[in-house]
């Protein structure tokens, strides 16, 4: 049970700024009827944000030129194939982790 | 996902809204939470956090990528304001996720809605929108079952990772960090499965556009901000170009 008061304050600060964006929409939509165009826009969010999270991880932005992250890209290929074929979350995660472990072992 | 096909044979608007069904639908994602949680615990220990602090961070912040970045900034000696501001930006995507899920749960009390929002993560969002895509409906008890299972698993995994940290010096080489990307990939595929051929072409074009926009954005802004901006742009293009 070791921590300090500043550390707890820091964590509480981080917790608060994480909590706000999660909760505000749930309060907002109770009081405001969202226009039809916004609801249609929101239908695109799942695929867009999931794609963006995956694609962002396939790039390496550390150098002067943005390149592929070859290691992640190599592990991504078998992962995507298994996801498409099995449509199973757990199988995809296992294949992803194992692929990455094998790649890291050799490179 | 066998459960969903089973449910679909009933009326598609009247699905099982039980806590236990939520727990069941959470199970496929648990491997992801456990992998990332363990990896986080191990890395946090090497970043000079105590096991108690790891526990507290996973209880209070409950966000994988933000917790990793917290450790990175903390060990680098960043100021508190920088750590808090970065955490805010990294987690801002949850605003869009909550906004997507929230209109489907307005029939519940304000307090319960605050509960749904508080425990929303990338993964529970992914599972919830996949269910919405298939069944057009989600219930509050189901949501609670999903959320609470994920939350408790996350706290336990992070803490156990912290306890194991002394024995496993290099979590990265185990490939555990890739579990998150693999999970997003599977959730993405599950969301694209049931949308029909003409719509699928539209979505694939949007994803291609997303690749280009993300690539350009990565020259100017950090990754997490690029994800947010690209999502907003491409979702807008999606609405404008839909038939």
Gyration radius of chain A, in Å: 20 Å
Query: What's the helical proportion of residues of chain B?
Result: over 70%
How many DSSP helices of chain A?
Answer: 5
Q: Tell me the quaternary state.
A: heterodimer
Notes on the protein architecture:
The complex is a heterodimer of chains A (107) and B (243). Chain A has 107 residues and is mainly α. Chain A has 5 helices and 2 strands, in the order H-H-H-E-E-H-H. Helices cover 79% and strands 4% of the residues of chain A. Chain A has a two-stranded antiparallel ribbon. In chain A, helix 4 (70-86) packs antiparallel against helix 5 (89-106). Chain A is extended, with a radius of gyration of 20 Å. Chain B has helices spanning 2-8, 19-46, 51-60, 64-75, 80-91, 93-101, 110-118, 122-135, 140-164, 179-193, 197-217, 223-241. Chain B is mainly α and 243 residues long. Mean pLDDT of chain B is 88; it is low at 1-14. The longest helix of chain B has 28 residues, at 19-46. Chain B has 2 domains: 15-194, no CATH class; 195-243, no CATH class. The interface between A and B is large, with 74 and 92 residues. Chain A: It comes from Ureibacillus endophyticus. Chain A: Keywords: Membrane, Transmembrane, Transmembrane helix. Chain A: The chain crosses the membrane at residues 6-29, 41-59, 79-103. Chain A: Pfam families: AzlD. Chain A: InterPro entries: Brnchd-chn_aa_trnsp_AzlD.
List the helices and strands and how they pair.
The complex is a heterodimer of chains A (107) and B (243).
Chain A: H1 5-31, H2 36-43, H3 45-58, E1 59-60, E2 67-68, H4 70-86, H5 89-106
Antiparallel strand pairs in A: 1-2
Helix pairs in contact in A: 4-5
Chain B: H1 2-8, H2 19-46, H3 51-60, H4 64-75, H5 80-91, H6 93-101, H7 110-118, H8 122-135, H9 140-164, H10 179-193, H11 197-217, H12 223-241
Helix pairs in contact in B: 2-4, 2-9, 2-10, 3-9, 4-5, 6-8, 8-10, 11-12
